[in-house]
Amino acid sequence: MRTGLAIKVHGLLERSFPERRVFLKSDTDTRFIRLRPGTQIAIFTGGALVLGWSILATAVLLMDSIGAGNFRDQAKRNQATYEARLDALADERDRRAAEAQAAQTRFNAALDQISQMQSELLGSETRRAELETGLEVVQTTLRRAMAEREAARVALADLQRSETRDTQQVTADSGVPVDVLADALENTAAERDRIVADAQDALRRVDDLTLEIALMEENNDQIFRQLEEALTVSVEPLDKMFRAAGMPPKQMLDQVRRGYSGQGGPLTPLSFSSRGEELSPDFLRANRILEQLDTLNLYRIAAEKAPFAMPVAGNFRFTSEYGFRRDPKTGGRRMHRGVDFAAPAGTDLFATADGVVTYAGWQSGYGRLIKIEHAFGVETRFAHLSKIRVKVGQRVSRGEHIGDMGASGRVTGVHLHYEVRVGGKAVNPMIYIKAGQDVF
């Protein structure tokens, strides 16, 4: 039965693939190769598979080429959009920097004006105290002069009443002429008139001093209002800046106050009264202004100790923000704990706040690295530097040149990697930079 089935299958194959012979002839001999139906089927199947595989591979390569072209075009468009966005951000940053510079100028002018007004206020209060003391002396002199005038008036009246009665008797008994008595009376009347004139002059002086005190009070009130308005304009933006940076103003000011606890100087509260009397409303108002000036000074000190400044001056580009991003080397996603500023190699880098250098050297991944410890538990890091210009333990001030931009460590190009850490935990540095730009 198997033989019959094989014969049938062979017959069917013979119809489609009849046996063929391939002759190979040489000069001395002729040979042939017999191609049975099974062999032909195997050759045909192999050729079909090879042809199909070639077609499929060509199609896949063609599709990959088309897809890669589209991807490159899309990448170029995305790059162009990204560069346009970076240029717009750079223009916006330059505009904000110009506005910040103008605001800083206005702020410094306001501080100078406040200092000048403060000096005028203190001088005015001193002058007012002197005028009050002078007024008391004048009033005492006036009261004494009026008492003397009344006494002279009573004595003159008594003298006039007894003049007629005693004239004859005095003349007869003493032999003094009447004209001598008249001269004495005339001198007494002149002395009385002089006393009255002095009293009237003292009254006029009192009126002048009262008017001068009223004008001075009005001038003081105007100075008070200007100082209060200037302090309000100066303190509120600073308070907003620290709140935007997540720094509670009360705790921050208390910490600064503990570090600067010396007293004295022009901000000492006013207390001119030496008689144990309660201070006047003007004195209380002046003390409130001095307290606000002290608060403004504490804000100024705190602003120098917190990293609100830019680490790079001049032209630069933001090339990477804080947060998760694609790793340019591995292609995976990782946390970027700072912001990147790109500029030419050797660009000057500046401390963003007062502090102490705690690290200055090479660290894996960071390259040449500077760490600065600031107040309020804040630390800043400057990485990938080409040159370090500070030493460990060195105290630096805001705006001091600490290093040069470079491409050391794990980088793809020249840039600065800038970090801000609070309590050892990385935070977005732009929170501080933007808060500072809104004020300075």
Major β-sheet profile = 10 strands, antiparallel
Q: Low-confidence runs (pLDDT<50, min 5 residues)?
A: 265-275
Briefly note the structural class of the backbone: alpha+beta
State the helical fraction. Answer: 55-70%
What's the total number of strands? 14
- The helix/strand order is HEEHHHHEEEEEEEEEEEEH
Tell me the β content.
Answer: 15-25%
Gross morphology is rod-shaped
**Distance between termini?**
104 Å
Radius of gyration: 51 Å
Q: What is the residue-averaged pLDDT?
A: 76
Tell me the number of helical segments per DSSP (H or I, 4 or more residues long). Answer: 6
Question: What would you note in describing this structure?
Answer:
- This protein is α+β, with helices and mostly antiparallel strands and 440 residues long.
- It is 60% helix and 17% strand.
- The protein contains 6 helices and 14 strands.
- It has helices at residues 2-16, 37-174, 178-244, 249-259, 281-305, 429-437; strands at 20-25, 30-35, 317-320, 323-326, 333-336, 339-342, 348-350, 355-363, 367-373, 378-388, 395-396, 401-405, 416-422, 425-427.
- The strands form 3 sheets. Strands 3, 6, 7, 8, 9, 10, 11, 12, 13 and 14 form a 10-stranded antiparallel sheet that branches.
- Helix 3 (178-244) packs antiparallel against helix 6 (429-437).
- The protein is rod-shaped.
Offer a concise description of the structure.
This protein has 440 residues and is an alpha+beta fold.
Keywords:
alpha+beta; 440 residues; two-stranded antiparallel sheet; 6 helices
